[in-house]
Amino acid sequence: MTFKPANTMVWFELPVSDLDKAIAFYNEVFQTELERVAMQPNEIAMFPVEKGGRSGHLYPGKPPARGTGPTIHLLCPDKLADTMERFVKAGGEMVSDPITIPAGTFAYGMDPDGNSIGLFTS
């Protein structure tokens, strides 16, 4: 029997060197309000989603060496070009042009900590 769930992604955790700066970056880029939550062993910042949605959080930690960790793709709140512009203005770096696939269009970027982030629109 082959395990084939409806969704393979359950949750993501993204390490950041400065939680306050990372919250400001992601709030600006994705036009959202991450929610601070006191968890053990430290505070985290959760990406908001509608009830039943899948998400993840930022946590104080040591990011992998620039561009060597996994890539998470986050949904853009508006046009890809607008999100890319905010990404760079907020301190990130775009590392690809837009790429179109059957499911939508995305571009790769590096957040200020060097985490690989895909900006996705359907």
UniProtKB/TrEMBL annotation:
Residues 8-122 form the VOC domain. InterPro entries: Anthracycline_SecMetBiosynth, Glyas_Bleomycin-R_OHBP_Dase, Glyas_Fos-R_dOase_dom, VOC_core. It comes from the Bacteria. It holds the Pfam family Glyoxalase. Gene3D superfamilies: 2,3-Dihydroxybiphenyl 1,2-Dioxygenase, domain 1 (3.10.180.10). This is VOC domain-containing protein. It comes from Roseibium suaedae.
